[in-house]
Amino acid sequence: MTTLVFVHGWSVSNTSTYGQMPQQLQQQATAAGVTLTLANIWLSEYVSFDDAVTMGDVVRAFDHALRDLHLTDASFDCITHSTGGPVVREWLRAQRDKPGSYSTIKLSHLVMLAPANFGSALAQLGKGTLGRLKSWFDGIEPGQRILDWLELGSAESLSLNLDHIHGPDPVASDHFMFVLVGDRPDRALYDHLNSYTGEDGSDGVVRLAAANLNARHALLTIQGQVTTNVVDTLTLNMQQGPRSAFKLIAGASHSGAAHGILQSAAAPTIAAILRCLQIRTAADYAGLCTAFDAENAQRDADKVELDPSGLFSPRVHIHDPRSMLIVRLADEAGEPLTGAGFLFTAGPQASPDMMPDDFMIDRQANSKSKTTITLFLNNSLLAGDARVADPTNTRKTLRAAVASHRPYGANVQPTDLAGLVHHALAKTAATDDLFSMLGPHQTTVLDVVLPRKIQEGVFRLTQNLTPEDFSKPAPGAVIA
Length: 480
Description:
Number of helices: 11
Number of domains: 2
CATH architecture of the largest domain: 3-Layer(aba) Sandwich
Strand order of the largest sheet: 12-17-19-7-6-20-11-14-13
Distance between the termini: 64 Å
Radius of gyration: 25 Å
């Protein structure tokens, strides 16, 4: 087997973070037909907790460290945790785009455990008072620049992920990528001051949808030339990224010795990693993707978690598949639509009042780009779901059946509807159903682009040679 490199996540300052994973993996590799000795294993020690260090700095240092390994076959495999996944993916992009500056070492298998590929809802909070207090008590800085990358909807993370969606399939170059993520938070680690640590649809730090590389880029814009209409009709276009292996590890969480996907070295995680490392061809990879999809479907069917609550009745968690939607509002010139409203509608009558109850779980604006909003949506409620029964008493209903309210659309309301340069109200076409752009446990980047309505008063020609004041021009008609 080739060299195996472990890469940890954000704000780690001790290699104890790897737990027993390297040793357990080495012990069980032989039984799975994988040759792995301790001499092949390297543990990374990279600094993410210094506020001056950027993602680009870590990537360059990673490349330098790899050169020092003097690999005999100029290739390696990699297992990452959390932020380690984006680090290595950014290195792969830099290696491709800057061949003269980065090594030619080949990464064959990239197994990402709970990767924050689209960021984490906690990153924004990590830069706040609680994050700084924790870092102060630990004697380290919070790692501001890395957290900027990890914030939901950051320009840096979107650049990497859109490049992946629109780029070539990594499998065509024999780069095999895998995402393994725990399907629930560790309830013992719940922070009552921060509800994200117990958020269903996440592992307590990273949302399942934010880890998954099976992602889409959707665009809502008008077709053809700018019109003079009072209401513009937006048409949906969409690009699906390359198929990527994605597996839910039942009962695993982001961190912690008991259930953490890395530290606990649980048997299901080890077994899944070894299945990934045995892939050799595109056909093997496609087969594993299909197998993982089937296993995920079984997990989704068994989605009720009863959390013991002492003398009280257990807390009920229904693990519906969630979708993450990152909405960017701008006009055709790239100007952000500050203050614009984005509203979902449902049913043939396209009414916001028809949206299913509780379909919206969370929304978070990016701190550096206020017009980039990340929405966390309940995919099951949007799709319509069957009755959910209590697993201990199937005659007891935990949630009644929910009907689908499709088709789903959207209305966009800009703040300025009448200026010399303004935007019109916009709505999606009646023939488009926005549910088609959402996938269970997946992320969609949605760009909403409105045309600029420029009125004739912006520029006129006159043959009147007598001086005249045009400081208050008549708007005139919208330029078609």
